[in-house]
Amino acid sequence: MLLPKALPEERELVLVRISKIMPHGAYCELIEYNMDAYLPISEIASGWIKNIHEFIKEGQKSVAKVISIDRERRTIDVSLKKTTSKEREDKLNNYNLEKRAEKLFNQALTTSGNEKNRDMIIRELSKKITTYAELLGKSYSDRSFTNFLSNPKFSEALTDIAVKNTKPKRYEVSYMMELAAATGSVGIPLIRQVCSEIEGAGVKILYLGAPKYRLTSEDASYPKAESRIKEAEKILERNSKKLNFSIKNEKG
């Protein structure tokens, strides 16, 4: 974050490093905050834990969920067992994205000769955004986004770095197709013709072995990627009197 919070929020996902293991729990370092937290043994895993060392190790990094906060005493309890695999994966991905964006932000400071103006620039930015990742994304999608800053050299450097280092997100949809001639009179030539038309609509075809094929469409816009598959279906329907076919999303 541009301006780190003093304390996390309850139910917030946090990155922890196990620092000291005790008989009934463990003390953890909150990697994103300058403070420690406590992990009760009952929050390490479901079921009875006979030997805590079989479940956690000192120095181990994990994603935990904040389950209680005493703001006056600044004490925090966290849980490992209350996180899902999806939450852990998303948290790590977001953390890595944020650290990469912060590195590029620092690069822009150096390139523009503004290392000494870091705090001032962050204060200006924090009026409109909260994270480095958000800053990088907006600087990529809108090259005039940082024009409100009082430092045009930094703004220009950041925009240039964002454009050069941001890979546009791509969406891919994948379908399974079964395709065969309705009669033996048309056979392979018609199947080849239909496949050629489908590829002409921007859909890739992978032959998996008769009668199965995989259709894939990719685009920066999910609706556009999906629309190409719909066009492939129309091509198949136009030839439905001579071909037997089925098409189904691979995700079910």
Q: How would you explain this protein's 3D organization?
A:
This protein is of the alpha+beta class and 252 residues long. The protein contains six helices and nine strands; from the N terminus they run βββββααααβαββαβ. It has three domains: 13-82, OB fold (Dihydrolipoamide Acetyltransferase, E2P), CATH 2.40.50; 86-165; 171-249, EIF_2_alpha (Alpha-Beta Plaits, 2-Layer Sandwich). The strands form two sheets. The protein has a five-stranded antiparallel β-sheet. It has a four-stranded antiparallel β-sheet with strand order 7-8-6-9. Helix 3 (132-141) crosses helix 4 (152-165). The longest helix has 27 residues, at 85-111. It is flat. The two termini are 38 Å apart.
Question: SSE layout and pairings?
Answer:
Layout: E1 13-22, E2 25-30, E3 35-40, E4 61-70, E5 75-79, H1 85-111, H2 118-125, H3 132-141, H4 152-165, E6 171-181, H5 187-200, E7 204-209, E8 212-219, H6 222-238, E9 243-249
Antiparallel strand pairs: 1-2, 1-4, 2-3, 4-5, 6-8, 6-9, 7-8
Helix pairs in contact: 1-3, 1-4, 3-4, 5-6
